[in-house]
Amino acid sequence: MTIARTICLGFLALIMAGTILLIMPFATHDGSWNNPIVALFTATSAVCVTGLAVVDTGSYFSFWGQLIILVLIQVGGFGYMMCSTFLMLLLGRKFDLRRKIAIQESFDRPLLQGSNNLVKSIIATTLIFEITGIFLLLQVFAAKFGLAQGLWLSIFHSVSAWNNAGFSLFSDSLVSYHSSWIVNIVISGLVIFGGIGYQVIIEMYLWFSNLIKGKKEKFCFSLNFKVVASTTLFLLVIGTIAFFLIEINEPETLKNLTIEDKFLTSWFQSMTTRTAGFNTIDIGEMTTAGLFITMGLMFIGASPSGTGGGIKTTTLRILFNCTKSALEGKDTVILYQREVSYNLILKAVAVVFGTAASIVFCTTLISLVETQLDFIEILFEVISAFATVGLSMGITASLSTFAKVILVFAMYIGRVSILMVIAAIMGEIRPSSLHYPEENLLVG
Predict the structure, then answer these.
(1) Half-sphere exposure of 302 (CA within 13 A, CB side)
(2) Backbone dihedral angles phi then psi of residue 339, each to the nearest 5 degrees
(3) How far is residue 425's CA from residue 55's CA, in Å, rounded to a whole number?
(4) Does residue 175 lie in a domain region?
């Protein structure tokens, strides 16, 4: 039972538990037994913090069903290993080296030192951001729906946004709030901070703490912080400009909005494609160019140790700098005056290749049975599922059972990562001392 298998089976166990609970009559609004496929799809989408839905979450599920979905989102956002470790800490138990290594694998970071404090800080960070989001959203939702219903809507959307899940209790997601600055900014802030990763947030806190205390020594940010922060900011700005220019004359998206709302909607669309899943415009009415930009941003996704999916911003930067080094004739890859290790380059290539191959495989299977759908609709849905985004062109509910099962598979692989699944299948890899002779090969 390797660490990779433990993590993969842990997520499967969560999905199965959520499916069983959502099948029960108390989970549906009309009190009837739920369709197993609907329950499986919803539970997978919640645990994998995707947001794709085959039914209207707000009207189809009862309060208890919505609460189950919310718990699955929170647990899925934390990750199986984080939640089980937190339970052990609550029980006062110490975890061994194997569990520390498992946490390291889950976050893809060397966290063997101070793991107890790290887990506690992650829990605290999550609660601070989610509670702040709840109070800020409450003033908008309570004014329209009353205190009780407004509080529940604020809790649900704050947790969903922080975990980059994209689940909404409104039938049109957040289209009705496309001009609300509070809703747009709060949701955007939760999504961005939830997606950049806990390590980046902790470094930001330490830097700000040193600034407040007036310490003279210069705070040194890690390479991970520099890459994640700069790449995230660049993608947000470029995405906003691209959506504004592409959709500005489209009647069903931006054309009929004020200039302020056009910029606000473009910003939100750029942000939400980074695995958030909320939308303030009708995705199905976007131009082909806008859809293509959206798929590209969805494919990139969020950052390591965050709550989002995709190939991650760090993978993009490593491959970008690999290309730059090749064009400049260099044999090393440099990021902020630091050399990137050969193992990281191999891992980045494997992530992109594995993700692209999985998307092609799933798209091909769905295309074989959903012959009435356009290719771009199917590809968009598969990328959204694999990158755990949750945006849709409106075809999710109409898909066949086979296509929904394929999307369930894509969401699961995208959440645990393709490399983790391969490692779970292959088991422990024994190191080899064999070295083979090198030989040149034509490339490009």
Answers:
(1) 35
(2) -80, 130
(3) 33
(4) yes
| 161 domain residue, yes or no | yes
Residue 442 lies in a domain: no
Q: Which residues of the chain have pLDDT under 70?
A: 1, 79-118, 428-429, 431
pLDDT of residue 238: 95
Query: Does residue 148 fall inside a structural domain?
Result: yes
Q: Report residue 56: phi and psi, to 5°.
A: -75, 110
CA separation for the pair 53, 43 (Å, rounded): 10
Query: Which two structure tokens, joined as six digits, stand for 309?
Result: 């999916």
Instruction: Kindly report the backbone phi and psi dihedral angles of residue 61, in degrees, each rounded to the nearest multiple of 5, phi listed first.
Output: -100, 145
Nearest CA to 415 out of 38, 76, 99 is that of: 76
* Residues 247 and 292: beta-carbon distance below 8 Å: no
Question: CA 65 to CA 373: how far, in whole Å?
Answer: 31
pLDDT confidence of residue 214: 79
Distance CA 312, CA 98 (A): 26
Q: Which tokens belong to 166? A: 């994209």
- The number of domains in the chain is 1
CA 72 – CA 51 distance, rounded (Å):
12
Print the domain residue range for 76. Answer: 3-426
If we measure between CA atoms, which residue out of 359, 367, 357 comes closest to residue 400? Answer: 367
**Structure-token pair, residue 25:** 């009559």
Give per-residue pLDDT as tens, 6-50. 778 888 999 999 999 999 999 999 999 999 999 999 999 999 989
Q: Which residues pair with 28 in a beta bridge?
A: 61
Return the beta strands (E) in 99-236 as ranges: none
CB 291 within 8 A of CB 397: no
Which helix (H) or strand (E) segment holds residue 154: the answer is helix 147-162
**DSSP secondary structure letters along 425-438:** HH-PPPP----PPP
* CA gap 384, 113 in Å, rounded: 36
Dist CA 121 CA 258 (whole Å): 42
Please give the single-letter amino acid code of residue 244.
F
Which residue's structure tokens are 């003279």? Answer: 216
pLDDT tens for each residue of 396-433: 999 999 999 999 999 999 888 888 888 788 776 676 77
